[in-house]
Amino acid sequence: MLANRKLILAHFWLAFAVFGFALTLGAWQMFIRSPIGTWLSNPELYYRSLTAHGTVMGYVFPTLVAMGFGYAISESALEQRLVGVRWAWAGFWLIVAGSIMAMVPIALGRASVLYTFYPPLIGNVFYYLGVVLVVVGSWIWVALMSVNLRVWRKAHPGAPVPLAMFANVAGSYLWAWTAVGAALELLLQIIPVAAGLKNTIDAGLARVFFSWTLHAIVYFWLMPTYIAYYTIVPRAIGGRVYSDSMARISFILFLVVAMPIGMHHTFADPQVGAGFKFVHSAFTALVALPTLLTVFTICASIEIAARLRGGRGMFGWTRALPWDNPMMLALAFSFVMLGFGGAGGLINMSYQLDASIHNTQWITGHFHLIFGGAIVIMYFAIAYDLWPHLTGRELIDIRLIRTQLWLWFIGMIVTTFPWHWVGILGMPRRMAYFDFGDPAIAPQALSVTFSAIGGFILLTSGIMFIVVLARGMRAPLVDAGPYRFAIAVHQPTTVPVALNTHALWVALMIVLTLTNYGYPILTLATTEGTSVPAVYVGAQ
Amino acid sequence: MSSEDAHRSVEIAARVERRWATIAVIIVVGMALLAAFAGIHRATMPQPRVEITDPSRIHLSGEFVESNLGSVLEANGNVTVRAIGQQYSFTPACIVVPADTPITLRATSADVVHGILIQGTNVNTMLVPGYVSEQLMRFTRTGDYLMPCQEFCSFGHEGMWGKVKVIDKTDFANRAKAGGRLSCVGQ
Ligand code: HEM
Ligand SMILES: [Cu+2]
Ligand SMILES: [Cu+2]
């Protein structure tokens, strides 16, 4: 039973409101820089929009989804009222305050530095302070997840922690630690300069700090989706989790190997030596492991559902799946996008192949396919699944839900496939304008037009999503019963300590981060003469 | 299901799962080995050393003073290109190089982070102020290539496009005889 529905609903509604806003900006960006857009006489507006879109989609939206979902998991999986509700509200309001504080300077054109910050370009100090508040708000959530699990353990000594909560807490620890990189960059480097206390900054060191955050943050975005794969989908389609321990191992692997690999984002940078680039590249291969394991376990879990429904044959069972169930549809779309996106990711992680697509539109195409596609479509599914439990009302528009999911999938493919292609042709990212009249750029015009059309399909789908949820707030009342998670084929009665606690793995995560980041950071920080003058945005 | 059946099914499930986990580990290790192999054979390798430079002084002295920017034919027949990026252009804005020649690109930024990307090639590097970027390149095809800045460098980023002109090796050698630093700016 969910006791704190208001808290959870507040997180979800804020998340989807800011998502709708940023989605509109995204569609506008795609349109305005395409051949069907009209020439934007003031390109600066594009970068305001891009900073807002990236900041919201990267920091605010997924964080709120993870938090709201995390509270829901804590209450339902542990069957225990949330401890620290006041703190949770404090975290929520910090995020509201931080978002507003960051958005005002962006709207005024005083913080057009994009969500990656990259100094020595420096924007208004309130932009960075706003981002810090958002992160601090989310750290309150991390602490609460840990406290709630501890309270539960006291009451259930030695009992296996429910899988959903085990994964949720692993995700929260990953976030707490990965955010430290950007926090150090902001607090030690950028904010003193933005506040005018200093006027030089080490741009190379800042990029290394940011890479500490930039990789594992994508696994934080991914956590709610993976939790839904393992603990919601099998239940929703009438199957079982194939293996509870393999699920735990996957989440532990994310915790341990997502961190010490971030320098693959600095493959093309001059401030990192070849040795550490190689180390991070090799570690990056490891991160494919939990995903490969997950694909196996989830496919096996849905096969169980199909066979329970009378499916037969080597592949014939796929026909017995409940394809009209939105959860099944969302999972299938998510897996297809994960497959294509994952293949693209293997290309990015190779130093040699990355050289031809680094910082091109391929990269934006790639992360929209994985993040906007495979991950966000499961956020939709999570919201649909939880909604009746939060509102006490039934979601009646099942057909609208199916159409919405279809449109999101089609829109993502239409947007991102040509987006990858122009990247291969060498189209650089983050540009307000392209001269499609230039014969060397003209061949990209058609592809960009397709992407722009895809953007409007996505926008339509996003609006439908919000309509479904809003209508769900006034639908007929139902008793949705307690919120449950999938159970495993062999539901564990005991779990080895290593698969039931996080301490060992958190320690390993920290140690690996320090070995893989400690030396490069120390060398850069102690090298004299690497600080360069700040360049203030909007200053003349 | 009798308890014996259940026992058997657990065993089968565990075996299938172990098999897949083994395949997954093999894939991952294989990829890492492939990367190591490509690296050792220097297919394309990151620059080995980190070099620093002071962007507030590069106009005044040292390797990146204006008179030293452009392409130069070295005694061993290789070519070195020196360039800088600044808001919102490259100097030289048009780089001229010979075909079929090992070329070393050395570049840095005079202000914020920029990037150099030569379309249709795998030449792609960040320019971070304070550090020197070095990249080896070799062109097999003569012609013009676009060279956009690939990292956001503030409001004029979309207008920061340079050019690379790859010319015949002997033409380049002839032009290099006059000495100095070559570029194709204004041609
Ligand atoms: C769920 C959806 C989405 C997410 C999570 C998302 C996220 C992001 C992020 C993090 C950035 C990076 C900003 C930067 O590089 O500074 C970005 C850029 C961008 N997004 Fe989205 N986005 C989403 C949907 C869309 C949609 C629907 C469109 C429209 C087609 C879109 C268009 C763009 C464009 C054009 C850029 C800038 C690319 C560039 O100039 O390099 N996004 N998005
Ligand atoms: Cu990464
Ligand atoms: Cu630029």
Automatic annotation (TrEMBL), chain A:
Gene Ontology terms: cellular component: membrane
Positions of transmembrane segments: 12-32, 52-73, 85-106, 126-152, 173-197, 209-233, 245-263, 283-306, 327-347, 367-384, 405-425, 445-470
GO BP terms, alphabetized: aerobic respiration
Superkingdom of source: Bacteria
GO molecular-function terms, A-Z: cytochrome-c oxidase activity; heme binding
Record key words, sorted: Electron transport, Membrane, Respiratory chain, Transmembrane, Transmembrane helix, Transport
Domain Cytochrome oxidase subunit I profile span(s) in chain numbering: 30-536
Protein name (Swiss-Prot/TrEMBL): Cytochrome C oxidase subunit I
Taxonomic lineage of the native organism: Bacteria, Pseudomonadati, Pseudomonadota, Alphaproteobacteria, Hyphomicrobiales
UniProtKB/TrEMBL annotation, chain B:
Subcellular location: Cell envelope
UniProt keyword list: Copper, Membrane, Metal-binding, Transmembrane, Transmembrane helix
Keyword Transmembrane (UniProt): yes
Domain Cytochrome oxidase subunit II copper A binding, chain residue ranges per copy: 76-178
The keyword Membrane is assigned to this record: yes
Pfam families, A to Z: COX2
Any one GO MF annotation of this record: cytochrome-c oxidase activity
Domain of life: Bacteria
GO cellular component: cell envelope; membrane
TM helices/strands, residue ranges: 20-40
Protein name (database record): Cytochrome C oxidase subunit II
